[in-house]
Amino acid sequence: MSKKADIYQGAMELFVAKGFTASVNELIERIGIAKGTLYHHISGKDQLIVDIYKQLMFEIEEKCVDSFSSEDPKEDSKRVFSKIVKWFISNPTKFYYINIFETSPYIKVHFGRVEDTLEGPRKNIMKKVNMGVLKGYKTDMIAYFDFAFTRAMANYFLALPKPIKSFKEEFDEAFDLYWDGVARKQLG
């Protein structure tokens, strides 16, 4: 693993354990590097916090989101959401980091939304809205509803004794609950 990857991993673990108030000194102690080495690889703690979030969101997009087919948009959405929830369950530290980032008042005050992480979801949602598959609500409203669903399901499954087993048994039912809320009802 590269020094930068070590920094990101150590910082992610530290922030999950202690929150974003954890200090730079705690970080350098945790990963065992000098402060100068840290700042050679990052511009500052706040930017590191955002960069880790971006890295994780783009990793999800790369590993979980594939091409969308108009043949069966419900199954396409279910497949993608299933991959995302399973990724969260399989990577709990990464999931917890995303969760604390997205719910942190500090982040909302200092950074607002991280716009470039919304480009992919917006594009996929607009395809489905334009096809008449999803209700014509505001794109970001649907995106946040999608995010809420995947995060809630990951939290639900991670709270169970056997998260992966429960995921395999219950995800289809959970997805149907979600789909009933966002899909345009087909007539006839």
Features:
188 residues, mainly alpha, 10 helices, elongated
What's the short version?
The chain has 188 residues and is mainly α. Helices cover 74% and strands 0% of the residues. Helix 1 packs across helix 2.
Order of helical and strand elements: HHHHHHHHHH
How many strands, which pairing sense, and closed or not: the largest β-sheet?
A: none
Helix proportion range? over 70%
Radius of gyration: 18 Å
> Which runs of at least 5 residues are low in confidence (pLDDT < 50)?
none
Structural classification = mainly alpha
Strand content: under 5%
Distance between the termini: 56 Å
Pfam families: TetR_N
Domain HTH tetR-type: 1-60
InterPro entries: Homeodomain-like_sf, HTH_TetR
Keywords: DNA-binding
Question: Can you give a write-up of this model?
Answer:
Keywords: DNA-binding. This is TetR/AcrR family transcriptional regulator. The structure is a single chain. By secondary structure, this protein is an all-alpha fold. Helices cover 74% and strands 0% of the residues.
